[in-house]
Amino acid sequence: MKKLTQADFKERRDRLAEEMGPHSIAVIATSPVAMRNRDADYKFRADSSFFWLTGFAEPEAVAVIETYESIDEGYTYSLFCRERNREMEIWNGYRAGVDGAVDDFEADEAYAIDLLDEEIQEKLQNKAKLFYRIGQQAAFDARVAGWIAKASGESRRGTSAPAQIVQLDRIIDELRLHKTEQELELMQIASDISAEAHTRAMQTVKPGMMEYALEAELNYVFGKNGCVPSYNSIVGGGENACILHYVENDKVLKDGDLVLIDAACEYQLYASDITRTFPVNGKFSPEQKALYNVVLDSQIAAIHAVQIGNSYKEPHNVAVRILVQGLLDLGIMQGNIDEIIEKEAYRQFYMHGTGHWLGMDVHDVGTYKLDGEWRAYEEGMVVTVEPGLYIAPDDETVDVKWRGIGIRIEDDVVATENGPRVLTAAVVKSVEEIEALMAK
Ligand code: GLY
Ligand code: MN
Ligand code: MN
Q: Residue limits of the Aminopeptidase P N-terminal domain (predicted)?
């Protein structure tokens, strides 16, 4: 099983310490356990940035990085975690404990999580800057504010509390935005498993099947590969495809309709994000095929626009022009292409953006603009390319034959020196390939 090594996580901590500079301390907590309902939690999933830095997947954990007078003195990595406890482990599973934090996760120092409030006071003394992710967890924010107040109150003893609090996310997000080859390998695995799930869905769908039954086919492929969905799966038959965040998935899939599936899994906490739209009975109608090919042409052209140096927005601009031209050619829109684009009149049929950063989070971290301008693609950035067209079932401005058709096609693309690299190419997307696969 492909996994990141402790050396990979250490390299990330090295980079963070370097970015922090001397006399600094960084504090980062994992996610709290989320309750589903009485006595039943959601399965725990570590906070992405905490895991990115530590490789530690248990709940109730906080990492602390401290630098000293000179960055040449290195830094100290402390991990606060749950202590080993035989009875708790019998009920709730294995814990690394403080020994495991040192031996298996390469912490320089490890403490029981219950000692955090006490130990942190000493660590905060005489540090110039505190790097902290403000605004992620209100309860933890309040706790950190309490630490600062206490450390400041102790200054009469001749020590000082950090004078500056710096948003830690700004450093980690920028590092996470540029993926290493190892990270791309994990995203490729997530994409291959997700592609297999979409292929299985195309092979198993039949008129009369429930949307949730088709979702179960996807979940089977994710689960047998040790993965979980990276977001709530959308399986929308017919006009349900026009509801962008349709997740009920509780209707019948009808003969003659398309089905839109936006679903993918995460592998080792790295996400994929794929959408395919295909006919429930295996054959596109002429209207479905005409609209589908407009979306496909726009998607292929937008993928080619993911070039190093191009603006983040270039794929969107390329996609919009092809979608609008297609709508004009099919008589769904009338008017002048430049005016339609200028006034964004196409939003009647295409109301979302063409993509987003992808990584450990499906809508991954990283700014989209620098100094107020859309940033350019750089080596190792991963973006989704997901144009679509949605003709509302009650849109009386459009001939009835187009109404209720919703189509989106989504792939995951890495910007590289050799041009765009599509991670999700293993699942077919042309009309001919889809119909051939479904006819088998
Ligand atoms: N599946 C979420 C998205 O496409 O943005
Ligand atoms: Mn997406
Ligand atoms: Mn998606």
A: 4-141
Look up the CATH number of the domain holding residue 231: 3.90.230.10
Nearest to 304 by CA among 292, 314, 294: 314
Q: Is 386 considered catalytic here?
A: yes
Please give the pLDDT value at position 153.
79
Model confidence pLDDT, tens digit, residues 326-340: 999 999 999 999 999
pLDDT band at 45 (very low <50, low <70, confident <90, very high): very high
Q: Are residues 224 and 277 in the same domain?
A: yes
Pick the atom of ligand 1 nearest to 264's CA: 1
Whether the CB-CB separation of 312 and 377 falls below 8 Å is answered with: yes
Residue 23 bears catalytic tag: no
pTM > 0.90: yes or no: yes
Considering the domain architecture, whether residues 165 and 194 belong to the same structural domain is answered as no
Q: How confident is the model at residue 229 (pLDDT cuts 50, 70, 90)?
A: very high
Which structure tokens are listed for 64? 């602390």
Which residues sit with Cβ closer than 5 angstroms to ligand 2, an ion? 273, 384
Tally the residues of the chain. 440
Q: Is residue 1 part of a domain?
A: no
Ligand 1 pocket residue status of 231, Cβ below 6 Å: yes
Please give the pLDDT value at position 156.
65
Active site residue 377: no
| Total Cβ atoms within 10 A of residue 1 | 6
Q: Which of 92, 148, 424 is nearest to 274 (CA)?
A: 424
Tell me if residue 245 is catalytic. Answer: yes
Pocket lining: 244 vs ligand 1, CB cutoff 6 Å: no
**Which residue's C-alpha comes closest to atom 4 of ligand 1?**
273
Cβ burial of 318 (10 Å; 0-12, 13-18, 19+) is buried
In the chain, % of residues over pLDDT 90 = 95
How far is ligand 3, taken at its centre, from the CA of residue 89, in Å?
A: 37
- Does the beta carbon of 169 sit less than 6 angstroms from any atom of ligand 1? no
